[in-house]
Design goal:
single chain, 505 residues, alpha+beta, 5-stranded antiparallel sheet, 3-stranded antiparallel sheet, 18 strands, 22% strand, flat
């Protein structure tokens, strides 16, 4: 276990149990925070990158207002005193264009869609009715807690905030319909569980400071969370919460330390009810400087257009007020004097260099993050050319990124499944034995736009060639829930279409 020296008391705090046994709560929490092996993320910097309103281009201290000439300086003769008065030039401060791009959000959302846009699979081969019931219960927990949507929140937080945790707890189902169901089912000798599994997401952007506690073997044996909460009077308090393998500890840090401040209760699970994922840096950290330069180029280009888009009319000669004629649309002017002329002053500079630079930055940002640019402009010229296998080549970089993400996310989702399996056995004693023997595996499946025709042709060729079984071929083209119905229907249709043969003796 991790050795934590206690310099004040001149002894050694050796284990998690030693820490929790300390009487000094302040010291206890300090040790619990030291159990974190990886550095705390810079949440303020990550949030500044995520929220485009906090980008550098929006900071008036970094990108100041533009000084614009309103009226040129002039010398004006004053006939009253016979002196020439110098009138200085007049300037105005103009707000520059500030074009911020939520490119981090776009990239993270695309990676999230490719990771869990297709729900991770649950694979299990039950050996008896007990294991089958456990597997079905796990799927119901997934459905009741809407985990297919929660998965997106988890992955999005992990990619942008560097870390995320999922905390599971039980609530008693005391609703009217739940009570009625338990009453009538009990008449037939069955028991309906009174508790339901629920979960919460903890992450830095949600106001949580996370402290996983690891032992020397790299196993997470406890997990702590520091957060803010408000009482009924609107007063804000700082709270600290620690979850171990069997208990939950809670303290309020802004109160005077005493024994009655600590609240402890058993969470009733056999495993630590917290799943945790961490990454060394946000997904878009490597392209931050490119994004800053891109926003600067776009904003500067917009300023240039504003200043030079409308041409200036230059007049050469003398113009008298009575030489203007016509209405607003057909107005004419007459200039007199040598070299009298009128022409527009236009900006003839080429914009190709700035366009190339902007497009280069976009390509680099998406390329370095292995993110496909999914937009109408990017795909409008492909027509129907991209389908089936061709799509896999187009999204190969994204799928490779998903495989890299799966190194951490795959373990996260598998730990969740293992925990839920154990929790189901704890809450329902009739499934306890089966929960210890059942093997449920989960796998991340990268999102893909599949052609139904290509899938059917592939399955038909594989089944007829003897590579796949009929069940595998149907499962490849159907949803899991429709598999058995489709197989039964195929068998019945084949039986009906077979010619009746008679054997002659």
């Amino acid at each position: 276990m991790q050795l934590l020296p206690d310099k004040q008391d001149n002894n050694m705090v050796k284990t998690l149990d030693d820490i929790l046994a300390l009487e000094d709560i302040d010291k206890k929490i300090s040790y619990l925070k030291k159990g974190r092996r990886n550095p705390l993320p810079d949440t303020s910097a990550n949030l500044a990158d995520w929220d485009m309103k906090k980008h550098d281009i929006m900071n008036p201290e970094l990108y100041k207002k533009i000084k614009v000439l309103v009226k040129m300086a002039e010398d004006k003769f004053d006939p009253e005193n016979g002196k020439t008065i110098h009138i200085p030039a007049q300037y105005d401060m103009k707000e520059p264009n500030r074009i911020a791009i939520p490119i981090e959000q776009d990239i993270v959302n695309i990676h999230t869609a490719f990771c869990v846009g297709t729900e991770p699979t649950l694979d299990c081969t039950p050996e008896d009715d007990g294991e089958k019931n456990v597997f079905e219960t796990v799927k119901q927990v997934f459905k009741k807690n809407k985990l297919k949507f929660q998965n997106r929140k988890l992955v999005r937080s992990w990619l942008s905030e560097q870390e995320v945790a999922e905390y599971w707890y039980v609530v008693k189902d005391d609703g009217f319909w739940a009570q009625l169901k338990r009453k009538f089912v009990s008449l037939f000798g069955k028991k309906v569980p009174e508790y339901q599994l629920r979960s919460q997401i903890w992450s830095p952007f949600r106001g949580d400071t996370l402290y996983p506690f690891f032992d020397d073997n790299g196993n997470m044996i406890a997990f702590s969370r520091e957060y803010k909460k408000k009482d009924l009077d609107g007063n804000e308090h700082t709270a600290f919460m620690t979850i171990t393998a069997d208990k939950v500890y809670q303290w309020e840090l802004d109160k005077i330390w005493s024994e009655n401040v600590e609240r402890t209760f058993a969470h009733q699970f056999q495993k630590l009810p917290v799943m945790y994922a961490f990454r060394p840096e946000p997904l878009c950290a490597k392209v931050k400087q490119l994004r800053i330069r891109l926003e600067k180029c776009l904003s500067g280009y917009a300023d240039c257009i504003d200043n030079h888009f409308f041409p200036l009319l230059m007049l050469f000669g003398e113009l008298q007020p009575d030489n203007l004629s016509g209405d607003a649309r057909n107005r004419m002017m007459q200039l007199t004097g040598d070299g009298a002329n009128a022409q527009y002053l236009t900006w003839n500079q080429s914009s190709d260099p700035i366009k190339v630079e902007i497009e280069t930055y976009f390509n680099q940002i998406y390329g370095l993050t292995n993110t496909p640019r999914i937009s109408f402009d990017q795909l409008k010229g492909t027509g129907n050319a991209l389908s089936g296998t061709a799509f896999r080549y187009v999204f190969m970089a994204a799928h490779m990124a998903v495989q890299n993400h799966a190194e951490e996310l795959g373990e996260f989702f598998q730990r969740r499944v293992n925990f839920l399996t154990s929790a189901i056995g704890t809450l329902n004693t009739s499934l306890e034995a089966a929960s210890k023997t059942v093997n449920i595996e989960t796998e991340i499946v990268p999102f893909m736009i599949d052609s139904e025709r290509d899938k059917v042709e592939t399955a038909a060729a594989a089944v007829s060639g003897g590579v796949w079984s009929m069940e595998h071929g149907v499962s490849f083209c159907s949803n899991y829930g429709e598999l058995q119905d489709e197989l039964q229907q195929i068998k019945e249709e084949k039986k009906e279409n077979q010619p009746t043969t008679q054997t002659q003796e």
